[in-house]
Amino acid sequence: MAVKSEPTRILILGGGYVGLYTALGLQKKLRANEASVTVVDPQPHMTYQPFLPEAAAGSIEPRHVVVPLRRVLRRCHILTARVTSIEHNRKAVTVEAADGHVEQLNYDVLVVALGSVARLLPIPGLAEHGIAFKTIGEAIYLRNHVLTKLDEAASTLDPELRKRLLTFTVVGGGFAGIEALAELEDMTRDACRYYENIEPEDIRWVLVEAAGRILPEVRETLGVWTAEQLEKRGIEVYLSTAAKSFENGHVVLSDGTEFDSDTIIWTAGVKANPVLANSDLPTDKRGRLQATAALQVVGHPDVWTAGDVAAVPDLSRTENDPTATCPPNAQHAVRQARHLANNIIRALRGGTPKDYYHKNLGAVAGLGLHKGVADAMNLKIKGFPAWLFHRAYHVKAMPTFNRKVRILLGWTLGGLFKRETVSLGQINNPKEEFARASRS
Asked: Which residues form the FAD/NAD(P)-binding domain (predicted)?
């Protein structure tokens, strides 16, 4: 009598775009007892990062831009843990669980979807004073931080301190930096209505970009137009300028400009998750996994990868540039994940994986309420139409019907009653009052 084999063990490292969409595809298409799927991530949710700027500015409820993994992946095992090393020669992954204990996970099929982390440069003061902008926690912190600075500025009698408190610096002119800058500037301008001693012109927003242009994802003319629009709003834009120091909140730029700023937002690029340095899988010079067009790690057909952590050949461009790889954006990550899930199913059932091919449809960015820019389908779109396009595209891409509806309702209520511009700064130090009471 034949003995039924054990289900194939599929281990997915990372619960972001790639991890979530791959797991969704697998749980939908796997047959009963065909395979088990385990998803490992330090957070119990997936964050839809394109909505972080609106969450930081109060246009969207922060809880609505995250997708609870346990709620949507009901046929998968969810482990809240941080990956520390990958040993593929033993088919083992070491993780540190949420309670601090370390354990080893074994697998038959591995999906590496660890994404990226902020790329920090050796700039004095950056680690101490910089605020990254990749997680929902950072978005919530930044919103409360910025509004708290307005409260402090409205209370101080020191003009120099007031100037420092009302100076906000953003480093990085890519999509993350420009959208965060535009949304938060909009929020502070709106908040001024409730401060009798703060006017919009008292608030200083500064953008620092080392390259000669912003928004490299769109054509140059749109990047120039965007910079002009930001300057019309009173935002200072420094191009071809590098940050040299942030020590003690004193900003020093490469062109000699110096000023004090209590808020330094760092969005100057990302890098592949450094966990790959503790693995025996092949990486390229940028630290990304070397991948085939079928989304398999080179030389390891039972290891799959996609998204920011992977150097996936961009077949839409390799004819002109054999080294072209897919850019690290949500558009490719979501499509790669769906393709990856189908390829794993094909491989499990003896089929041949298919190559991933997707021509970039373009890019779209929000520049605050009712303002945007888009370069899509060979069209240049500016202003209100681009803002509508931005919202329509991202609500369509947002996972789960539940979250789509909540976001739409939030936008509707915000349009009717205006967004809330109150700081919940106590969240950043919730035990302060308790400690103060214990000393009295």
From this structure: 9-337
Q: Are residues 246 and 85 in contact, defined by beta-carbon separation less than 8 angstroms?
A: no
Picking from 283, 308, 304, the residue whose alpha carbon sits closest to that of residue 295 is 304
- Compute the residue count for the chain: 440
> Is residue 1 predicted with pLDDT exceeding 50?
no
Contacts of 280 (CB under 8 A, 6+ apart): 86, 87, 88, 89
For residues 322 and 16, what is the distance between their CA atoms, to the nearest angstrom? 28
DSSP code for 432: H
Amino acid at the residue 159: P
CA distance 105 to 424: 40
Structure tokens at 375: 């370069």
Say which amino acid occupies 363.
A
| 111, β-bridge pairs | 12, 304
Alpha helices by DSSP H, 269-382:
330-348
pLDDT at 292: 96
Q: What local confidence, expressed as pLDDT, does residue 414 receive?
A: 84
The pTM score is 0.89
CA distance 37 to 180: 35
CA distance 376 to 362: 4
Q: Which helix (H) or strand (E) holds 145?
A: helix 136-155
Write down the pLDDT at residue 419: 78
Q: Tell me how far apart the alpha carbons of residues 319 and 213 are, in angstroms, rounded to a whole number.
A: 27
Residue whose entry in the numeric block shows the structure tokens 């991933």 = 356
Token match 């972080």: residue?
A: 52
Helix (H, G, I), strand (E, B) or coil at 322: coil
For 355-367, give the DSSP string: PP-----EEEEE-
d(CA 163, CA 304): 51
Residues 9-18: tens digit of each pLDDT: 999 999 999 9
Please say whether the beta carbons of 370 and 384 come within 8 A: yes
Which CATH architecture describes the domain 130-268+363-428? 3-Layer(bba) Sandwich (3.50)
- CA angle 22/27/31 to nearest 5° reads 130
246: left (phi over 0), alpha (psi -120 to 50) or beta: alpha
Q: Across-strand partners of 117?
A: 271
CATH superfamily of 8-118+271-349: FAD/NAD(P)-binding domain (3.50.50.60)
Distance CA 267, CA 286 (A): 18
DSSP H helices, 156-299, are 159-165, 175-191, 220-232
